[in-house]
Design goal:
33% of the residues lie in helices and 27% in strands. The chain is of the alpha/beta class. It has 3 domains: 164 residues, Rossmann fold (3-Layer(aba) Sandwich); 163 residues, Dihydrodipicolinate Reductase, domain 2 (2-Layer Sandwich); 79 residues, ACT domain (Alpha-Beta Plaits, 2-Layer Sandwich). The strands form 5 sheets. Strands 5-4-3-6-7-8 form a 6-stranded parallel sheet, sandwiched between helices. A 5-stranded antiparallel sheet has the order 12-11-9-13-14. The chain is elongated, with a radius of gyration of 24 Å. The protein starts with a strand and ends in a 5-residue tail after the last strand.
Length: 433
């Protein structure tokens, strides 16, 4: 093959590969800037089209005049791009555009974890059927080369568990609150918005939906199984308070939003939500908006990846890395990866941290212990720090490893008592991470 030829679809393409960009927001603009500011890439990749709504407002003077700007997606496809970069997000209408690109033999590079979580298996099959590629390094971990590392660097292992901090916004909030003082989640979120770590509505981040979508993608890469997002339990970090961090510190722990998927026979345990982790662990030491992921293999043991998990430049680096990988592929290599259906089963027995806020009176602890005993749950320890008002007294119990379903039954009984000021908060204690 001539050195100026590469594959990006059903047959050979002349280099440079023609790149069309769907979206010119924070990430899209950063992708374009890398392609423009690195002239050494010009013999491999050529940005030809930019699609965006209200394109006149988005047009940037630093983009070469050879690039066509359009707000008509048909114009983009009429140019017969070799690669379509999708950085708009969401499922509709973007999913239809991604399918259209693959059906026409164009490769797709996307940062869209929501689309992959919803339609990943179908899109992979469509790419394979059309001898083309869909690549998505930027969908999980921002600038961390996580998917490449798992897909290629750990391909020889039999992976058993993936655990990580996959959402930079939540990690920024929780690591700030862990620093001491009495900062509320609302005040820290305000700072996160000002710094660009949080959206105006951060619900997808703090309620676990963003990390859940990323976990679906990671399960597909690590286990070649598609876990439906709706089947993965997701818990919000909203109930976490400064008092929880004080009690966690007394246990040698801190609190982070953890995403976890673990093989269990022919099924999987999966979870996204706040959990206690050892303060000295890689998760406990992870600060700010950074991501960290640890994988456990049958043969290779533990492998970890960490780095910037948010921001346009970091995500754009992952997108351009995928573009370069496509430019380097040999003729005839098409997509072959598949995600088969996967089944989520209840979590294993674990120890739990349970925080109560009560109107103090005699007999409360006895009532709680009796409710736990009726579900065969053993109380491990009781923690109560001084200095809190008696009419809204937070205290904590830890329980020995138990089934989550049994604990939830006990907490439903306890939560109905008239001494509760707030619903009890239960967090898994992931002490082996």
């Amino acid at each position: 093959m001539d050195k100026k030829t590469a594959a990006s679809g059903s047959g050979p393409r002349r280099l440079p590969l023609r790149v069309a960009l769907l979206g010119f927001g924070t990430v899209g603009a950063a992708v374009a800037r890398i392609l423009v500011e690195r002239p050494e890439l010009a013999d491999r990749l050529q940005l030809t089209h930019v699609f965006n709504r209200d394109v006149a407002r988005k047009r940037a003077a630093w983009v070469p005049s050879t690039v066509t700007w359009t707000e008509n997606v048909d114009d983009l496809f009429a140019s017969l791009p070799d690669i379509v970069v999708e950085v708009i997000g969401g499922v509709d209408p973007v999913g239809g555009w991604v399918r259209r690109a693959l059906e026409r033999g164009a490769s797709v590079v996307t940062a869209n974890k929501v689309l992959l979580a919803a339609q990943g298996p179908d899109l992979l099959q469509l790419a394979a059927a059309n001898h083309t590629q869909i690549r998505f390094e930027a969908a999980v971990g921002g600038g961390v080369p996580l998917i490449h590392g798992v897909r290629e660097g750990l391909a020889g292992d039999n992976l058993r568990r993936v655990a990580g901090i996959l959402n930079g916004t939540s990690n920024y909030v929780l690591s700030r609150m862990a620093g001491g003082g009495d900062e509320t989640m609302a005040s820290v979120l305000d700072d996160a918005r000002r710094l660009g770590y949080a959206e105006a509505d951060p619900s997808a981040d703090i309620d676990g939906d963003d990390a859940g979508s990323k976990l679906v993608v990671l399960a597909g890469i690590a286990f070649h199984r598609h876990l439906r997002l709706v089947d993965i339990p997701r818990r919000s970090i909203r109930p976490i308070t400064a008092a929880d961090f004080r009690y966690a510190r007394s246990l040698g722990c801190t609190i982070r939003q953890i995403s976890l998927v673990e093989a269990k026979g022919d099924a999987f345990h999966a979870f996204v939500g706040p959990a206690l982790v050892p303060a000295g662990s890689s998760f406990g030491r992870n600060e700010g908006a950074n991501n960290v992921v640890t994988l456990f293999g049958q043969y290779g043991g533990e492998s970890s990846f960490s780095g910037a998990g948010a921001g346009g430049p970091a995500t754009a680096v992952a997108v351009v890395s995928d573009l370069l990988a496509l430019a380097q592929r040999q003729a005839g290599e098409g997509g072959g990866e598949q995600w088969l259906p996967g089944r989520v089963v209840p979590p294993p027995a674990r120890p739990y941290y349970v925080r109560f806020v009560v109107r103090d009176r005699p007999g409360i602890l006895a009532f709680i212990a009796a409710a736990l005993a009726r579900q065969s749950i053993n109380l491990d320890a009781v923690l109560q720090e001084p200095g809190y008002p008696k009419d809204a007294l937070p205290f904590v119990i830890t329980v020995e490893a138990c089934e989550e379903s049994a604990l939830l039954k006990a907490l439903a009984e306890i939560g109905a008592a008239d001494f509760d000021v707030e619903p009890p908060l239960a967090l898994p204690m992931l002490l082996g991470v």
